[in-house]
TrEMBL record:
Keywords: Protease inhibitor, Thiol protease inhibitor. It comes from Nocardia aurantia. This is IrrE N-terminal-like domain-containing protein. The keyword Nucleus does not apply. InterPro entries: Chagasin-like_sf, IrrE_HExxH, Rad_response_metalloprotease. Residues 40-134 form the IrrE N-terminal-like domain. It comes from the Bacteria.
Length: 393
């Protein structure tokens, strides 16, 4: 394929996506509603299990529609939908797509598939949305893996799609792109959370610190990590209020603070807080103190991650641990039902959880479903449209 033909095809696809955003007055403070755009353009949208097929676009006479694989995660469904919408708007006719045409970036793609790929990236990651997202996250300069993951999460695209989108906008060079793509999204999420996954590997991760937001909009199963400054040497510790969850004893790398009833405050071995189910819509997955300076393990001994919840505290010499000191309290929650859920925490003396708190923090977690589209059948708006058509017949 002559280079100028490829360049012209890419430019046409990019301009078509920009034209659609202008026509639909797309807001750039949230992920692009590709399912809504598809339906507003009059296309039928449905899902069904498709084995190895990602999706397909059908155009017959005045009717056109897109069918997506219901087994795929929503980020991939969104990208496939944008890809098929590109086929529609670029006049490519009916198409069936799989991993070779949707989840692939190479120089040997057929021209129409290349255009659909470029259109999908430009539609889901327009420059104004990317720039606002990076600015909101405080990302300047060359983004690292955790930065790119956070941006992909906030734009509701896959990590790989975000890598290529940033590269196309010249915010990432292709050498770094290849390295980050090879390490993968899991590595990026682990770097952001500071430890291995404590729930579903597909769950998104949200970090909320003491000066950050007081509300998080996420999906069922996501991890919300609340980081609060905590100095155990003062005897004060953050505890989850009883209307949310009974508070565990404060711990630091497998150690409990223990009051002797008089003037003494010591440390005794204990494992970090166990995983406990919640009945009010939230699971409390982790509740642990992380010292600002972590003691290094002796030569030949095992190092323990902050998130080793099963056997922390075993086979270690506790004389090597430092005394209670400044650090952060890490509380990880995960919604298991949709709706609004509240986490309330208070800073109190460890020996008197009924006293007036020295500080309080409230976090509102609003959880949506893992997927917008049904497991099989027409999208909700399409069902309403079909009912109206039948009623008018």
């Amino acid at each position: 394929m002559p280079p100028h033909v490829r360049r012209d095809a890419v430019a046409i696809a990019s301009m078509q996506a920009a034209r659609l955003h202008q026509q639909m007055h797309t807001p750039y403070d949230r992920p692009v509603d590709v399912f809504g755009l598809t339906q507003r353009l009059g296309l039928w949208l449905a899902t069904q299990p498709l084995d190895h097929t990602y999706g397909f676009y059908l155009s017959e006479g005045p009717s056109a529609g897109i069918v997506l694989n219901s087994n795929h995660p929503e980020t991939l469904q969104r990208y496939t939908c944008a890809h098929e919408l590109g086929h529609h708007l670029l006049g490519h006719g009916s198409r069936t797509d799989d991993s070779n045409t949707v989840d692939r970036n190479s120089d040997d793609l057929a021209l129409k598939e290349l255009q659909a790929q470029v259109f999908a990236a430009a539609l889901l990651m327009p420059a104004p949305l990317v720039n606002r997202t990076l600015q909101r996250l405080g990302i300047t300069g060359v983004p690292g893996a955790p930065d790119i993951y956070a941006a992909s999460r906030d734009m509701a695209v896959s990590y790989t799609a975000a890598l290529w989108g940033l590269a196309q906008l010249k915010k990432l060079d292709f050498g770094l792109l290849r390295a980050l793509e090879k390490s993968g999204a899991k590595s990026a999420k682990d770097a952001l959370r500071g430890g291995p996954a404590v729930t579903d590997a597909r769950a998104d991760v949200w970090i909320v610190d003491n000066t950050d937001r007081d509300a998080v909009h996420c999906r069922v199963g996501d991890e919300i990590h609340l980081h609060l400054p905590e100095d155990l040497s003062t005897g004060h510790t953050w505890t989850i209020d009883h209307d949310t969850e009974p508070a565990p004893a404060p711990s630091a790398l497998g150690m409990h603070l223990q009051w002797d009833g008089g003037t003494g405050l010591g440390m005794t071995p204990a494992a970090p807080a166990a995983v406990r189910p919640r009945s009010a819509g939230l699971d409390i997955l982790t509740d642990i103190h992380q010292p600002a300076t972590r003691p290094q393990p002796a030569a030949g001994t095992q190092d323990y991650s902050l998130f080793d919840l099963d056997s922390a505290g075993e086979d270690r010499d506790f004389d090597d641990f430092i005394l209670p000191a400044p650090g952060i309290r890490i509380i990880v929650v995960s919604p298991h039902t949709t709706g609004e859920h509240t986490v309330r925490v208070s800073l109190r003396p460890a020996w008197d959880t009924t006293s007036e708190p020295a500080a309080q923090r409230r976090l509102l977690v609003t959880a949506g479903p893992r997927k917008t589209l049904p497991e099989q059948g027409l999208a909700p708006r399409q069902i309403e449209r079909r009912i109206q058509e039948l009623a008018a017949a």
